[in-house]
Amino acid sequence: MSATATGKTRDHLGRPVVAVTGMGVVTSLGQGVQDNWSALTSGRSGIHRITRFPTDHLRTTIAGTVDFLFDEPVRSPVLTERLAHLAAEEAIAQSKLGTPGDFPGMLFMAVPPVELEWPAKRALYAGTNPDSGDAYDRMIDGAWALNDTDTYEFALYGCVAERTADQFGTRGAPISLSTACASGASAIQLGVEAIRRGDTDAALCIGTDGSVQVEAVVRFSLLSALSTSNEDPTAASRPFSKSRDGFVIAEGAGALVLEDYDAAKARGAEILAVIRGVAEQADDFHRTRSKPDGSPVIGAIRQALADGGVAIEEVDHINAHGTGTPENDKMEAMSLEAVFGEHIRNIPISSNKSMIGHTLTAAGAVEAVISIKTIRDGVIPPTINYENPDPSFPLDIVGNVARRAPVSMVLSNSFGFGGQNACLLIAAEPG
Fold first, then answer.
1. CB atoms within 10 A of CB 127
2. Which residue in the list 159, 181, 205, 423 is annotated as catalytic?
């Protein structure tokens, strides 16, 4: 960072510096940053058996569901919204920006491809006139015929962000986005870019996902993406281990309040971190698999370093995407070695998904919060279940036990189905 002749703080490309002044999180480990951080640094898993729907005949019967906050099961879009609001409330309260219901900035929100689950679809279809047209029209008409406008509203993709904008009083049109497992990081990237352009002085960036329902589990099972290690749920997620057999689907939400650094300083806000670099790069090779040479992932990492003006030696820690699938972990390890060379052996790497599972649309935002806590506390959460390392990976995996280490710069990776790759460089505020 440097100060211009006008006294404004700018990065190496002359852009406004983007500060983080608030953060919030909800996962299967608990509600709130502190509860999650305590669990993560102690190596505790939030993965457990699924109880919200029958799992008979399913190959996977475990998940990182958030079951402890609400008395009754709710539809996925409703849970997605509730998780987002809890994370946002915590982040805004910490930032002390605006007043309740009047957030003076834009909303960028990563949400899953919202849709009704099978039971709701069947109920709507059964309650309509069979002569009213095709199945889709009948379900739309059925929402009104059953006087269930909430069901219809929650079937609309932008609904969760619009309701969140109403709840928190954000400025302008809310932005909904879905870039698969990179979505949470993409929401933060859009907020950073808006502040850099001068479109806004502040942004509320949220990644949220409450979509663990039978339909989602069946779909990912058909892709052979989920772990089937059901015997011991807490040991099922095994990133970078030789015995890894898939990811564990999970739920959660992460939220950051971003601000123009100078504006935040002027109002006396505490600067938690700065977003030093952002990047994204698409991979058109396959709907689920990565390009064999890893070039889009390699490109995204290099782009983030260039965007932040950061040398490889400045990265103190990598918060890996680390899903625990055979191919994804291999691709990430290969790409990191290509970018960092021999130096990769000197950078501690961890995957939070070993404890919270893969929160899909929320993952990038949840892991950004964890990265900031790593910087502020000087503790790197472990990758648990790391008893059988994959010998082909030349990586310094922080295995099983948290590691104390000074951390000033974190690279947080998010790579998603459909070729969506996003990387964030998160740094401590310079002294």
1. 15
2. 181
Q: Active-site residue 12, yes or no?
A: no
Please tell me which residue in 85, 205, 317, 321 is annotated as part of the active site: 321
Across residues 299-307, what is the average pLDDT?
A: 97
Q: What letter represents residue 398's amino acid?
A: V
Residue 398 burial (C-beta neighbours within 10 Å; 0-12, 13-18, 19+): buried
Residue at token pair 């983080």? 20
In angstroms, rounded to a whole number, what is the distance separating the alpha carbons of residues 136 and 142? 10
Return the structure tokens found at 102: 């009047």
Tell me the pLDDT tens digit for each residue of 50-100.
999 999 999 999 999 999 988 777 888 889 999 999 999 999 999 999 998
CB 83 within 8 A of CB 70: no
Single out the catalytic residue among 159, 205, 317, 358: 358
Give the predicted TM-score (pTM) of the model: 0.93
Which residue ranges make up each domain of the chain?
A: 21-114+156-423, 119-154
Quote the CATH superfamily of domain 21-114+156-423: Thiolase/Chalcone synthase (3.40.47.10)
- Decide: 10 and 195 in contact? Cβ < 8 Å: no
Instruction: Name every residue whose Cβ is closer than 8 Å to that of residue 369 and which is 6 or more positions away in sequence.
Output: 23, 24, 25, 33, 36, 254, 255, 256
Are the C-beta atoms of residues 209 and 251 closer than 8 Å to each other?
A: yes
Strand partners, 226: 247
Helix-helix angle 118-126:135-145, to 10 degrees = 80
Give the per-residue pLDDT at 182. 95
205 a catalytic residue: no
Q: Categorize the per-residue pLDDT at 151 as very low, low, confident or very high, splitting at 50, 70 and 90.
A: low
Q: Is 321 a catalytic residue?
A: yes
Q: Could you read off the pLDDT of 112-148 as tens digits, one per residue? A: 986 666 666 666 666 555 555 555 565 555 554 445 5
The strand ranges marked E within 190-337 are 202-209, 252-260, 273-282, 317-319
| Mean pLDDT along residues 301-306 | 98
Closest residue by Cα to residue 304 from 275, 274, 278: 278
